[in-house]
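Bench log. Compound arrived from synthesis this morning; before running ITC I wanted a structural hypothesis for how uracil sits in the protein. Inputs:
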Amino acid sequence: MSAEETLQQIASEVSACTQCSLHTTRNKSVPGEGPANAEIMLIGEGPGHNENEQGRPFVGAAGNFLNELLAQAGLKREDVWIGNVVKCRPPGNRDPLPEELSACDKHLERQMAALNPKIIITLGRFSMAKFVPGAKISQVHGQMRKVNGRFVIPMFHPAAALHQPQLKTTILADFGKLPDLLDVARRELGQPGPAVVVPKEELPKDDPKQLKLF
Ligand code: URA
């Protein structure tokens, strides 16, 4: 099965999932979305009101700000994969309970295995706790580290940063570092980035070998 087919399969299992009580109050489950070959996987907390209506992650105010943050890194939403630690809305946007997190973790682990992203960005404390338990976001935000062979960058949650001018500046700066961090991850993982196709007419005339194509 291709990564894309596996992700579709997980999404259909998520939509029929009854492993925790959140399925009784959800409108739509939110499995996550993005290209199966995304280099970056962003993991938020859980669907809110708008996500529960639409079945898509980060489509409300926090989502608009997330789009802005991605633009800061020269990325578009379609370039990355976006999901959450829990796939169904906790009523009234309460924190997800331990049993909900653990029931939903099976889906997330399979999504991570299928995507095999170069970088995982955690958004908020619940996804950070999965990878860097006990860390304080004020101390580790924007820093890339390797966890179980994967590069992880904890970031502030966009919803938290949206209304706090100081945090907003910080999270914008953190996302601004992403292109450099992605280069580091690509080098460390020994995998080049996507193929760059340079039109023939743009090749330097004197010494075409100097242009590094990969
Ligand atoms: N906040 C999250 O953590 N996830 C969403 O999908 C939307 C808002």
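What the model suggests: Residues 44-48, 51, 57-58, 62, 84, 124, 159 surround uracil (CB under 6 Å). The mean pLDDT is 91.
ITC booked for Thursday regardless.
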